[in-house]
Amino acid sequence: MEAIRQKVKIPKNREILIKVPQHIPEDGLAEVIILLNQETKQSKLDKLKYAMTDTQFVNDLKEISEDFRAVDIAEWE
Question: What domain of life is recorded for the organism (predicted)?
């Protein structure tokens, strides 16, 4: 099974045209599933603000920063 993702904006007429790649044979069967992304820009920003107060996330960032510090120092020597 092959998955092909195409993100489209829903038009006023509520019809979506799907372009099928050339390597898929004619008369082949495909299953089409519509997944709605209901996340807004504000909800994404709220998640980022929360992440900055999440101790596990902040600790992970510090750990990654420490891991790369040696690489950064080596580049400048």
Answer: Bacteria
pLDDT digits (tens, 9 = 90+) for 27-38: 989 999 999 888
* Residue 7 CB partners (closer than 8 Å, separation 6+): none
- 34, part of any domain: no
Q: Does 10 fall in a domain?
A: no
Q: What is the mean pLDDT of the chain?
A: 88
Asked if residue 52 lies in contact with residue 58, where contact means CB atoms within 8 angstroms, the answer is: yes
Domain that holds residue 59: 41-76
In a domain, 6, yes or no: no
DSSP 3: -
